[in-house]
Amino acid sequence: MNKPDVTGFFDPATYTISYIVADPETQACAIIDSLLDFDQASGRTSTASADKLINVVKARGLNCEWIIDTHVHADHLTAAPYIREQLGGKTAIGAHVSTVQKVFSSIFNEGQSFHTDGSQFDHLFEEGETYHIGKLSGRAIHTPGHTPACMSHVIGDAVFVGDTLFMPDYGTARCDFPGGDAGTLFDSIQRLFELPDETRMFLCHDYLPQGRDQYVWETTVGAQKRGNIHVKAGTSREAFIEMRTARDATLAMPQLILPSVQINMRAGHMPPPEANGQSYMKLPINML
Ligand SMILES: [Fe+2]
To answer: Cα dist. 212→40, 86, 162 in Å?
Structure first.
């Protein structure tokens, strides 16, 4: 059996879905795209959302082997270090995180003490790398475009695509962050479309488009190929780039991009404390 038991947790503040992906046979599990609540006005974090997920892992007697982020999120903070402390497991992200770290280390003027080699994470996935969650087999696929380091994870009969595709009626992820590229995202989506049509596909966000009254985060590869409003089977690369670029030009920066990137590029750790023992985040002025 290679069919993971998947539980999604929706965060209404950032429209993010975090997942527990469990092996029904061995009780091993992975956490994908965890979330640390952050109130920007007060600068205060909370583990309320992460605790909900942790409580389910504990109640079901699951053993956490992996804490995976599909990419350096720009709209929420990862709870990876907190989850590791509470449940164990290895934190992991795509190896191209070093590219993202280089870009943002220059934007935030990080000093030499900030390493841009991904060493803040326990593990860096390479393109095509295979791994295990108990007896489930996982495979990392490099799917850049939204960011240079985005990885999708094929786990048994399911694929976790992070921010590449959203539900068919909402479309695709934006490509206008530093290092993003619409043509590259199109190419990555073609790779996802090579998976069997019946593959269950789990998304990192749902924004409840007009005409729907419920948040949904599961679809299939076949459903995307048949009906994604931005890119279905037969959509040309040129048409996609034109649509995506025009749409991105209308989008505001996500509310939490500056806090999120500063923390997530550090694998979820806060910046080192200053002389008074307090940790701070920066807001670069007129840069993004
Ligand atoms: Fe994202």
So the answer is: 29, 37, 21
